[in-house]
Design brief:
233 residues; mainly alpha; 10 helices
Length: 233
Amino acid sequence: MARPVQDRAEVILAAARTQFLLDGPERTTVDAVAARAGVGKGTVFLYWPTKARLREAVFRLEAARMLTDLADDLRTGATHLSVGRVVRSEIAAVLENPGMAPLPMTEPDTPFDLDEFPGPALHRVLSIMQRHGLVRDTPTDEVATAFQTVMSGSVTLALAAPDRRATVLDAAERLIRSTYDRPDADPRAVAAALPEVLDALEDTVDRLVGSAAPDRPTTAELRPRPRPAPATA
């Protein structure tokens, strides 16, 4: 029985993700992805003209999953809204599955649209936190650069020395927290900032998912989970 057209993008991306995990992104072939997805090679190219575009689409969805998980953890209180805790959470997320981490975090020389992720999302979140008095009075670009630098360096170190992972996470959180988090942040300010931060994260997830399969219309459900409805007063 033929697979419904609207399901193909979802199936191909899932197959590509699995194949990348098994063989690594460089060794994975489009033929292998097509075989795993149960479609012809030409069908893959209808959605993504090159393997590089397919690879970027998979990593965009991985970035979306990371931000979705972060939003869920912030919403439930599993992660506290502070720059130090957020950087620790994202480093840990990358280390859970480094082969599928978003490109800027593991391959800084690989082309990836930093105007889409993580730059604007991080700046928006930091601006919200500064406006609510949760971050020291420091230029947002400096805080964002420090966040990305610490994250990239920490991932590199933890992957090279897995036995030091806990120490790396502690050091990264402490470094960012002591430099940029406001130690006197009012819990009421955290509560006030949280809905805006969650909205910023969800907006970024929507953009990443929307750009994952831009070359051909698709009705596939690519989002990691439905966007929660805004809380009502």
